[in-house]
Write a structure and sequence with these properties.
Helix content: 25-40%
Order of helices and strands: EHEHEEH
Oligomer: single chain
Strand order of the largest sheet: 1-2-4-3
Number of strands: 4
Number of helices: 3
Number of domains: 1
Strand content: 25-35%
Structural class: alpha+beta
Shape: globular
Length: 78
């Protein structure tokens, strides 16, 4: 399933939540309706802490797997 919320396909380096970053900023972006990019280690933590349904799209970026996470309610509307 391809998300149509944000047409930008690849993130900038500073937009990705890596292993040593906090997920709090990503949660606040999800609440605002923005897409977030996370690494595999932070994906389950983000989903548990967010507590609502999300849509996840995997992407291989610079030989690493990252995940695009979006609010499921907004994904259904688009």
């Amino acid at each position: 399933m391809t998300l149509k919320l944000n047409e930008k396909k690849y993130p900038r380096d500073d937009e990705i939540v890596w292993h040593d970053d906090s997920v709090n900023a990503a949660i606040s972006k999800l609440i605002k309706g923005e897409d977030v990019w996370v690494c595999s280690r932070k994906l389950s933590l983000l989903i548990k802490r967010y507590g609502k349904e999300v849509v996840v799209e995997p992407l291989i970026w610079r030989r690493k797997v990252i995940f695009r996470v979006a609010n499921a309610d907004l994904a259904r509307k688009s």
